[in-house]
Amino acid sequence: MPLTHDQFNEKVTEFVGDVASAISCFSAQPWQVDAELDDEESERLRAAVDAKVELSAPRDSSENTLAQLSANYKLCVDSYGHHLAVENSSFTLKATLDRAPIIRWDYNRNANSAPASHVQITAHRGALSHLLSRLDHATPHSIESLHIPMGGDRFRPCLEDIVEFLIRDCGFQGGENWRAILQNGRAKWRRIQTRAVVRDAPAEAASGLEAMGYTVTPPPDGHRQERTDRLSAW
Amino acid sequence: MIKIGTVSDTELRERRASILGKLNVSQEDLRQRAANYALVGDEHEAWEQLESIAFLLGETSA
Predict the structure, then answer these.
(1) SS3 call for A205
(2) Domain count for chain A
(3) Is A183 part of a structural domain of the chain?
(4) Backbone phi, psi, residue A165, to 5°
(5) Domain containing residue A111
(6) Could you count the other beta carbons within 10 Å of the beta carbon of residue A219?
(7) Confidence band for A165, pLDDT divided at 50, 70 and 90
(8) pLDDT (tens digit, 9 = 90+) per residue, B23-45?
(9) What is the C-alpha to C-alpha distance for residues A166 and A159, in angstroms, rounded to an integer?
(10) How far is A78 from chain B (nearest CA, A)?
(11) In angstroms, rounded to a whole number, what is the distance separating the alpha carbons of residues A167 and A23?
């Protein structure tokens, strides 16, 4: 049965809770998650989730912010109408100074030219610009115009990965119990993605289970076809 | 803090007009500059909001 408005809204509410858990992992930093859903009068099942957390150096007060991490999700239902789906997500690290993106981790389910999941970095590197220039690239000095692939629909990074990167690699201060919260959130995300991958390649999933000793009985009309569009997408 | 609420199409269209009015810029102009990585300052956040509004309205893109 396709999701109703109420069921969709319940799933969005649970999703918002997971986003809040991840972005509240920074120590003593103010955070906010806003979610807006199309009202009952609309036939659309859509929601936009916008999460923000201010980031400061461990030695500074929380008012003295260096950067902001935002996580923006556009949510709808999947092609079967049964599950919540992410149409688009964008995790952005911005400098407080100029409010411009430094790193963007983007996902677009219906990407045309760029890879569905990619990272864009605003940076300057003479050697790379030189290389792009020799290749007649349209914007050799805008490294942010490169869309670096990040694992496609199913194997892309989750918000928990970005938060952990900012704490472990960049040095922002994690809050109490951040590691366990992020590990739990990441495990939940990967279980959801595992189910999605199984729907993409059911025969492969059955074969893997059989190799582990499970007995798998396909439906009477045989295995559902592979979603080669998802498996092969950039 | 978490805020969850529903929004009507009329409210979304009013908000879009308000965002563009504050920046004193047309949506087409902002779209062009977003495509060319030429947004500055508050325009980044404004563009993100316009994209969310377009999505909620069922439009293909902002």
Answers:
(1) helix
(2) 1
(3) yes
(4) -60, -45
(5) 5-200
(6) 8
(7) very high
(8) 999 999 999 999 888 898 889 99
(9) 11
(10) 15
(11) 11
Of A39, A46, A70, the CB nearest to B8: A39
Does residue A220 fall inside a structural domain? no
If 0-12 CB within 10 Å is exposed, 13-18 middle and 19+ buried, where does residue A1 land? Answer: exposed
Orientation angle between helical segments A5-23 and A178-200, nearest 10 degrees: 140
Sign of CA dihedral A173, A107, A92, B57: negative
Q: How many CA atoms lie within 13 A of A174 on its CB side?
A: 19
- A-B contacts at Cβ under 8 angstroms: 78
- Token pair belonging to B33: 């500059």
Shortest CA distance from A24: residue in chain B:
B1
- Whether A58 has a pLDDT exceeding 90, the answer reads no
Q: Nearest to residue A54, comparing CAs of A73, A36, A69?
A: A69
Could you please report the per-residue DSSP string of A16-60? HHHHHHHHTTBTT--EEEEEEEE-TTSS---EEEEEEEEE--TTS
pTM (2 decimals)?
A: 0.93
Residue type, A140: P
Contact A70 B41 (CB under 8 A): no
Contact B6 A33 (CB under 8 A): no
Across the interface, of A41, A47, A144, the residue whose CB is closest to B37 is A144
In a domain, A51, yes or no: yes
ipTM given for this complex: 0.92
User: B15 to chain A nearest CA, in Å?
Assistant: 13
A40-45 long-range contacts (CB < 8 A, ≥24 apart) are A40/A5, A40/B6, A41/B8, A42/B8, A42/B9, A42/B58, A44/A76, A44/B56, A44/B58, A45/A3, A45/A5, A45/A8, A45/A76, A45/A77
Helix (H, G, I), strand (E, B) or coil at A156: coil
Residues 6+ away with beta carbon under 8 Å from A3: A11, A45, A77, A81, A82, A83, A84
